[in-house]
Amino acid sequence: MSALERRYRTVLRLLPAGYRARWEEEMVAAFLESMERDDPEEAELLRDYGRPSWSEMGSVTALAVRLRLGGDGTPRSVAWGAAVRLAVLMALLAHAATGAVGAGIRLWLAGVLSWLPDPPGVWATPTPSDFWHVAADLSGVVWLGAFLAFLFGHRSAGRALVVLGMVPGLASALISTVDDAPMLVSTWANLLLGGALLLGTAAFQPHDRPARPRPWLWALLVGTVAMTALLLAGSVTAALLDWTGLQAVLVVAAALAYLGGAALALVRPAPAWSLALLVLVAAAFALRLVTLLDYALLDPAPGRATWLAAGAAEALALLAVGAPLAVLAARALPRSVPA
Amino acid sequence: MTEPAFFILTALVSGPRHGYGIVGEVAELSHDRVRLKIGTLYGVLDRLVGDGLVELDREEAERGRLRRYYRLTGEGRRELAAEAERQAANARLATDRLRAFQPAKAETA
Predict the structure, then answer these.
(1) Which helix (H) or strand (E) is B6 found in, with range?
(2) Which domain holds residue A20?
(3) Are residues A101 and A145 in the same domain?
(4) Which of A75, A119, A288, B95 has the lowest CB atom count within 10 Å?
(5) What is the ipTM of this complex?
(6) Cβ(A185)–Cβ(A62) under 8 Å?
């Protein structure tokens, strides 16, 4: 076996075992054929030192994610696929509500929504009004588009909008590396989670039955109203919650509602919901930990101890709801069948 | 139907082909616009076989390596014809609209 073949087979290990049993030999043969060259010296060099291109590895990774999230039809992957779809929809819902509220407030402050009463005086502090800041504030509505696109089965449009929604975060991360601004771990962690969200959208596949839109649209309405109320009560929340904290609180609230409902036998725990909430708890927990690093490392501001304490409490709350969710999910998840 | 699936089915119309043969035929058919990655090809092929649009034709050993040839099924041929008709109808729609609204644009310009 040439070094090239060995490397390609290593990449193929990303694929589920059952799928590999059917297709691995053929894939290897086709790949090696694609790497054949007329010049014997070049062919030899490729066999010894060549490796699959990034795009080739990307295609295998995308296939592996799709298969493991329901695409290969095994009960376990179907359960994971349903859970990741729910988790992605819930994450997009949160982004959509905050994006819509953020853009609305920006327009309100700019005086565009003249039928509304004037904004409170404390908000009148000048916000940067250059093109990029305004664009970044308004770009939140892109998430609303992404949420609706996945809800109504427009997968490609949804993915494009998720990528677009990540642009402001990516831009500010890149700018912070060029500027002398202190580098924030949370900026990169948020980007990483955005990437995971994008990868998670692979769970939306052509043959899936789409979600029923009506409950999700109600959730969007309730979420937007609640977010607006939270912002208008800003002085209370700002003292206790940063953006990551707000996400943590939302996730804990959703998990508590679900676990409470299950405990009181109001809802029957569904494997997809247990897993989906567990995924969100894990993401919120990871984000909370790395953002606490920012507070611990960078900011010697007077309120630091309070922020750290609040963050630690949120992390603990996430762990507390994560444990029963993990038990429920593990119980409900179909056993993997050895291929 | 996704674009790779459309091209893979089209590549099999003229006769059975093996994996890398399909890659080459699709590149030629699309004037190099669609260059299938191996991961993409076998992801789509797995689905097409599962849906009964494509089936195994024969196996051959070529320089010690397995080559499986695939052919279009009757169902696959019908599905491709329907998709081609749908795309052609969409294209006609756009062309007709473009033609209909061109003079109006010329007048206002």
Answers:
(1) helix B3-11
(2) 3-52
(3) yes
(4) B95
(5) 0.85
(6) no
